Amino acid sequence: MAEPAHRADEPVREVPFRGGGFAPRRLRHLAPPFFLLLLLLWEGASRAGLVSPLALPPPSSILTALSDLAASGDLRRHLEASLYRLVAGWILGTSAGLLLGLLIGISSLGRTLGIPLVAALFPIPKIAMLPLFILWFGIGEPSKLATIALGAFFPTVINAYAGIDNVPRSLVRMGQSFGLSHRAIVFEILLPGALPGILAGARISSSIALVLLVAAEMIGAQYGIGALVLQAGNLMRTDQLMAGVVVLSLLGLTISALIGLAERRLLAWR
Amino acid sequence: MQLLFEEVGHAFDGLRVLEGISLSVAAGETLAILGPSGCGKSTLLAIAGGLLRPARGRVRLAGTPPAGCLNPLTYVFQDFALLPWRTVAGNVALALEATLDRRARRERVAEVLRRTGLSDFAAAYPRQLSGGMKQRVGIARALAVRPAVLLMDEPLSALDAQTRELLLEEFLTLWREARTTTLYVTHNLDEALRIADRICVLSRRPGRIRGLLEVPLPVAERTAPENAARIGELRAELWRMIAEEVRAADRELASAREPVDG
Amino acid sequence: MRNPFRATVVALFLAAWPLLPVQAQKITIAALTFVSSSPLFIAQDKGYYAEEGLEVEFSFFRAAQPVAVAIASGDADFGVTAFTAGFYNLAGQGALKVIGAQSREEPGFDFSGYLVSNQAYAAGFTSPEKFPGRSLGMTQYGSSFHLMIGMLADELGFPLSEVKLVPLQSVPNMIAAVKSGQVDSIILPAHIVKALEAKGNGRIVGWVHQYTPYQLGGLFTSTRNVTERREVVEKFVRAYQRAATEYHEAFNRLDADGRRVFGEKAEALLPIIQKYTKAKPQSIYNGAPYIDPLGRLDVGSVYAQIAWFKENGLVDEKVDPAEILDLSFIEGHFNIPE
Ligand SMILES: Nc1ncnc2c1ncn2[C@@H]1O[C@H](COP(=O)(O)OP(=O)(O)OP(=O)(O)O)[C@@H](O)[C@H]1O
Ligand SMILES: [Mg+2]
């Protein structure tokens, strides 16, 4: 230890630390007890009469409503109806969106016509279009699928073509220089390169689909989680309403987890 | 194969980039192209590979491609141009997918990876590789198609000096083995003097041929101490030509507003 | 005092008590701008509330549900709306009490009518007996329209499951759906169905009062008002009854042949009703419902409605009609179960 020496007559102080922070991490094991505590406080407040059970039903009665719904088989019927609409509508909207996004991404005509079209139609609230959809598609399933599909369509288009635009042109040039066919350039270079954007778009479009599910099920739906929530609201069954909200939220979590899984699988190269 | 440039000229939206380039790259020759930044070297290379249609003149290819050649005009890129979602083997295989069946492809890839020392990295993704390794993949990919003409646009300029040296050593052997016609764009005089049979110096934009210089020593002997003086003379001559153009280009840049790149 | 927020408001109110003018007692009425709410407006414009020493502030809503919620939460003191499953569930929580009648489906007074789409009519749907196998557009399960078709099914002896019920959330949606033939039928108030029929957008095949006369809606206040501000409720009821009587005499008259007639009295009240409802005179005459002059309830009907809703799983089993009703403010309620 010869190095750290200093002249005795000079002032010496330690270098003050000023780094650190601004790097939030997820602390493990803290979230579950926190939520449990929140639920317990909520339940306690309800039991103590601090909040009216009508205004905010306690977790226990939400759970009871949920298990009643499950026991009667209604929950399954609601879920089946909603899942069908979500999946079918989302697939419809996403495939159409991918197609247009690809066209905008690779063709001048597609870009010239597509971008203003999307810019003009994207901001239209789909809920406001519902009466029109009903005139066009009737009050049955088609209008519900159309609502959800349209909600999923636009974010998919935008993310798909933005994703394609983000693929470095040098990679396309590379593909051409090796004599790859048009098709191979689209499927081996552009689409895989746009996949991160497309999956980010899927996250958005699936959330939008979930939000629109409730709107879609406003009209002419006997079953469906959205219909359940609306009906519970109208019947002042706030416990059922909250049960429906819980199911919607679980649905959202599940979808998000599935997309996360897809991302880990398909984007392992990142 | 022989590559013939005939009165090639090009302009981007009125910006004259290349003018009157007539040049013949002989079969098996390595021609280095030097020139100030922005003089049109990359443009010339893009025209040579059929990626850009020249405004004037034409480029022709003479002779018959070597046996098993899948892509006569093949690039090695400055930025490697690897697909990040494909493994090393997958990137090399990309160029073969349209032409070879699965088995032949696998054999060809394995062979090329072996030759370039990449066998252990066949399953790695580009993000896991250093710059030098990535360019090794770029070169392996180019070799895999058995090219007739290699078009290399500053293939080593993104790498650090030591890696550059190492790759240069390794691949000089590979290139000379195959005797592939090569067009090699670089900013680096020493690199050019090391590998080229001839060196073409382009003027500042619009790029014209400012001079053509033969390097009269066999490649293997250029690093020998007894040839240092001879190489030094060539280097000085090259530098004189280039320095003049670069200085003039800088002065023009200062006096005229330059259209922005891209 | 379960709600701390309300407690705070009350405390503030008590603290501010000396600052308030003592003469007039303030009340808030939650109302929809429907003709069925007319007595509320008449009492205001003719000064009946003022004569009782009440200072009234109106709070207008666009749907029935929020009216009931406003009373239950204490944001408003009095309201009138139609009975729905949601209303009964809310009332069953104990926060509000029905003290009198709004309108009712009374024989001879066309109010809610069965309107059939042109297509369905052409296909033979010409009377309410033909409901089985057809679809009916309504706002929601548990709405008064749902109740009306349910009562009709019981009355005519067909299972309700044979009618395809289509929830459409709003009246405009119902109208659009029947116009375009997306649903075979709807049930809506007279001024709407008559206008639709006049424009050739459907056919009226009957009136609810012809099949299932019933107590359509009620007058209600918060349980707190009933227990703590009884005299205010009594004052309000007196003013309401005066206005209801006036409305009844103007709009609920029949001539010797049983046809409805409107005279000078109705004309005199029109400006008041128009002021609040913004409706055209013809629409007001067409859609003026039967309102009991003294606000008397058909109590048996309320019991039957709750029973029907319970049977269909729309009203909580715990809801007890006796708990919801407070029959002590108005004399003469009828059809009271023993
Ligand atoms: N696609 C294009 N559109 C318009 N101008 C271009 C385009 N590509 C290149 N240029 C311009 O043409 C000129 C020559 O470009 P080029 O890339 O061929 O130069 P370079 O000699 O390769 O330069 P560097 O040494 O910097 O790589 C530059 O001024 C550049 O800005
Ligand atoms: Mg360049």
What is this entry, summarized?
The complex is a heterotrimer of chains A (270), B (262) and C (338). Chain A has 270 residues and is mainly alpha-helical.
Element layout with pairings:
The complex is a heterotrimer of chains A (270), B (262) and C (338).
Chain A (H helix, E strand, L loop, with lengths): L30 H17 L11 H13 L2 H33 L1 H14 L4 H12 L3 H25 L3 H9 L4 H35 L8 H10 L3 H29 L4
Helix pairs in contact in A: 2-10, 3-4, 3-6, 3-8, 3-9, 5-6, 6-8, 7-8, 8-9, 8-10, 9-10
Chain B lengths: L1 E11 L2 E11 L4 E5 L6 H8 L7 E7 L10 E4 L11 H7 L7 H14 L15 H14 L4 E5 L7 H18 L2 E5 L3 H7 L2 E5 L6 E6 L13 H28 L7
Parallel strand pairs in B: 3-7, 3-8, 5-6, 6-7
Antiparallel strand pairs in B: 1-2, 1-4, 8-9
Chain C lengths: L3 H13 L8 E8 L5 H8 L2 H4 L2 E8 L2 H10 L4 E5 L2 H8 L3 E6 L1 E2 L7 E5 L1 H5 L12 E4 L5 H13 L7 E4 L3 H9 L5 E5 H9 L4 E5 H4 L5 E6 H6 L1 H22 L1 E2 L5 E2 L2 H14 L3 H7 L2 E2 L7 H13 L9 H4 L14
Parallel strand pairs in C: 1-2, 1-3, 7-8, 7-9
Antiparallel strand pairs in C: 3-11, 4-11, 5-14, 6-9, 6-10, 12-13
Helix pairs in contact in C: 2-12, 2-13, 4-5, 9-14, 12-13
The structure holds adenosine-5'-triphosphate (ATP) and magnesium ion.
N-to-C order of helices and strands of chain C: HEHHEHEHEEEHEHEHEHEHEHHEEHHEHH
Overall domain count of chain C: 2
Largest sheet of chain C: 5 strands, mixed
Structural class of chain B: alpha/beta
What would CATH call the architecture of chain B?
3-Layer(aba) Sandwich
Number of helices of chain B: 7
| Uncertain segments of chain B | none
- Helix-strand string of chain B: EEEHEEHHHEHEHEEH
The unreliable regions of chain C are none
Give the CATH H-level superfamily of the largest domain in chain C.
Periplasmic binding protein-like II
First-last Cα distance of chain B? 33 Å
